[in-house]
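Worked example 4.2. Below are the chains of a multi-component assembly; read each line carefully before continuing.
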Amino acid sequence: MSGQEGDSIASALHINGVKTLSHSLRFYRPRGFFCGIGKCSSCFMTVNDIPNVRTCITPLKNDIRVKEQDRVGIITDKKFINRKRKKIDTDITIVGSGPAGLMAAITAAKQNVPKILLIDENHLIGGQLIKQTHKFFGSKEEKAGIRGVDIAVDFEKQVKGYKNIEFMLETTVVGCYNGEKVHKLIAVKRLKDGDQLFEINSKKVIFACGAMENMLAFPGNDLPGVYGAGGVQTLMNVYGVKPGDKVVMVGAGNVGLIVSYQLLQAGVNVDRVIEIMSKIGGYHVHAAKLRRCGVPIFTSCSVKEVYGKDKVEGVILVRVDNSFKPVSGTEEDVTCDTLCIAVGLTPSIRLLEQIGAKIEFIPEAGGHIAVHDSTMKTNVNGIYVAGDSSGIEEASTAMIEGELAGISAAASIGYDKNAKKIMKKCMKALNQFRSGPFGEKPRICKEKIACCWNGGINY
Amino acid sequence: MEGLTIKNYKETGVLCLKDLKIPSEKQLRKGVAIIECIQEIPCDPCVAICPVNSIFMKDINDIPKIEYDKCTGCKRCVSICPGLAIFVIKIQDDKAQVTIPYEFLPIPKVGDNVNALDREGNVIGNAKVIKVNSKSKTTVITIEVEKEQAMEVRNIKLD
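Applying the procedure described above to all two chains together yields the following structure tokens:
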């Protein structure tokens, strides 16, 4: 089998018609990939005898042997060839190079922090920006009217222009330990000839790890063809691979609406968008774009089950009443080869949890988040958080939060020129973003976080 | 756009323009932007790009309001609007020129005959492409339709 340069293993397999990447252990059910960004375990395969490789974020290379793994992978000693761990000392480490991480790095670099390390487990800089082909909302300062992918290109140029920013791609932080003055991160960098272990000693750490796609529970949800919206976006916008020919979109929030529109742009038939709530959750303007292309949106509608032999062949939809209970007799059978799930995100906080940051469950944040103050500082000295990791919100606000975290971290080690002014500007911009009706959820989320920070009120 | 009542757009995604305060005949003959953005979303590039300051917002979450008398129908807001929610309508004799943002391939050429679609994607007639501006990735296309369809046609479909 062959693929193109720049493909991931999963995208190359997909275009070769291989949608089943593994089988479940007990019932041998076929499984395909789901999130497409290395956050779930759906795409684990054995590559060159190394098991549990996340094929969705592993770049395709020449002459590799990719095998399905049908049991829990056992790590051979090939995984870590006999290499000593390398040590890196740095001032600020930023985990995640999405909008928040990039802005944090650029802001700290502008403050002349001597050593900034930007780590990302993907092979491209930009996080989810690289697949946002739509124009961003917001104001001029937050790059409104510019497409996410163009923002990523611009950021990448900026980051590469700073000599004080070093970046490590294809590097996963697997552990972090709280030190008194210096925090220790353990990271694995994937090199051509095996993995390299790094020990990073950093004065300050900013976690901008993003979020992961939510799943829905229904029979058949593990069939290849049930994809997360982010995964679908990755396939078509990053790798140029059509996820399917006929898609049913689940969720009429902004993500569901935008990805549906992008599917249309890619020449994929979007049969309909369904939404369990009685109202469309996303912006009307996004819904209007779909409607005038002839895509219907059904509210108060949910998935009963997905059927198919080895892959999605169709979906049974059902109307729901005001309490979200299925109304019997309203089932509708829709044939499709892809069911795209866009039902929200959950913040990625595992590293923050590990380092001892105070974690609270806040529904408006999308799940558990690290409690932080208005300058993005957590309760662990020297640890900061920004972007979706601190509560699900927009890319525009992630950029502002990244700037805030960057400036706070820089100021805390003495690079505090204009710091107060910049912080004030950021906070003002955030408040403005969150003051409208669509900012209600993040506004409540951040208010609750502030309460937790001040008094530890438990929700 | 004062007086616009929206029926069920939250359920359907389709605006109902029954009560839309349509620009006056004179304003429409001059050519004006119709802003179909009716929710308070934090976004303001239309205000920033307007060369004659005809679009107003109290703050970034406000709904954009346009002063038809000031608007020159220059179409700059059509391509900048992230929501693709701005259209320019110009009436000439018994025809209407409708300018729409378009982000699909292939891009039609001037002179092409295309299907005119309404807000629900229904074909409601034919349209002739009279202007194509593909300077930005959002192509701005002006089509000519029957005058009566000016407030209905919001998309095109190539055969």
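Take a moment to check your reading of the output against the notes. The first strand of chain A starts at residue 22 and ends at 23. The first helix of chain A runs from residue 9 to 15.
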